[in-house]
Amino acid sequence: MPKPLLRGIHHVALICSDYPRSKAFYSQTLGLRIAREIYREARDSWKCDLEVGPGVQLELFSFPGAPPRPSWPEAQGLRHLAFAVDDIDATVAVLAARGVACEPVRMDEHTGRRFTFFADPDGLPLELYEA
Fold this sequence. Notes:
about 35% strand, globular
């Protein structure tokens, strides 16, 4: 079998409608550390690199006038972004205390792992997956 071409996921990029609101959500509400933040004058755009875990980042962009992407009904393309957590009940409780509503926790019938969904400020579906 040939050696895999890909080693892992380096980053996921998101375009938000309200940069300060989304930056606060991902950094303060979800607790991701800001690795760097730059303003790109030529594009009138902010870029914020947030650390999700070792070697994995979430890039948050602002682009003036970017059209909204439909999340409901589900459409082709990226369906959702899932974050691994150690204790889903504790994580859901922290998010609830911070004003984030999560769906009821469910069990993945194929893996036996527990998961739930919530949304970012733009309605992007996010998942918590107990790993």
